[in-house]
Amino acid sequence: MKLQEKIETVVKTEEIQSVSIDLAESVVDLALDDGLLRDIPLIGSIVGLSKGYFTIKDRLLTKKLLYFLTELQTIPLEERQKQIKKINSSEKYESSVGDKLLFVIDKAEDSRIASLIGKLFRLNILSKLSYNTFISCTQIINTSNIDLIRFQCVTNLLHKVEFNDVSEINLPHYLSELNGLNTSQLLILRWVVIRNNETSDNLRLKPFYNLLMEDSELEQSEEVVMFKSNLFQLGFKHILDPTSGLNTIPDFPKSVSPTEYAFQLFNAYGLEQIVEIDIEIIDKLLRRK
């Protein structure tokens, strides 16, 4: 059985339930020799049987495939089978589901991107996303710089699509827009992602987090200076000290909270439509002054 046929078979059978993240991570453990890997159900049948050994490329591809498959496990078997049959029987598409999935997953930079492709295909199976839109979005994701911040934002965005908060029609546009955000906007996205996390202790941007939590003892880190500088250059001079030039970055004004900075930038760029944020909560914080 060809690899693309095997992928399709796993997606439309209960064999997918044997997939896990732990299994995916074990694939790249070089301490596991080829014999042990071939003995693991599913893995041995996906890669390496024809050659009798696993190359590094085989291991990395298998890891990406397993991350992709974990996103589909909770979908009922009947729905998976129905969607694959529908696509394969359509005359609109030149390649089978297995062919297309193998192509886009192989192109994925790493397992994180493969999991996003899995989330996209999940939306397609759930009829939240057309197959054409799925293909378009995978092309955008595979050619974008998806760092940790963008990854979290894309995950939030796909969650919104699944629960009908964002239309699939706008999804390719939002993904392209997210990839094109400049440094100023990404600083705001960092704030949102950090704010949504339960803890900030292990984050590299802890000083930036503290600033936006209105920590008066914060040192002026590089991230903070860049944040202020970009606010100024974006034209928000009325928020900062109007007498200060670009070479003199003013201190945070006591009259305006960091929350209000973020609020105004979000309104300016419409970013609340892209990332997970509750504008009503921010609005309440502003009215509390």
Tally the structural domains.
Answer: 2
Number of strands: 0
What would the principal axes of the Cα set say about the shape?
globular
What does the largest sheet look like?
none
The run of helices and strands is: HHHHHHHHHHHHHHHH
Helix content: 55-70%
Segments where pLDDT lies below 50 for 5+ residues? Answer: 198-219, 232-254, 274-289
How big is the Rg?
Answer: 23 Å
Number of helices: 16
Q: Report the span from N to C terminus.
A: 66 Å
Mean pLDDT: 71
Tell me what portion of residues adopts beta-strand conformation.
under 5%
Supply the helix-strand structural class. mainly alpha
Commentary on this structure:
- The protein folds into 2 domains: 143 residues, no CATH class; 105 residues, no CATH class.
- 59% of the residues lie in helices and 0% in strands.
- The chain is globular.
- The N and C termini lie far apart (66 Å).
Summarize the structure.
The chain has helices at residues 3-11, 21-27, 34-39, 43-46, 56-70, 77-89, 97-107, 111-125, 131-142, 148-162, 171-179, 183-196, 206-212, 222-233, 258-269, 279-287. The chain has 289 residues and is mainly α.
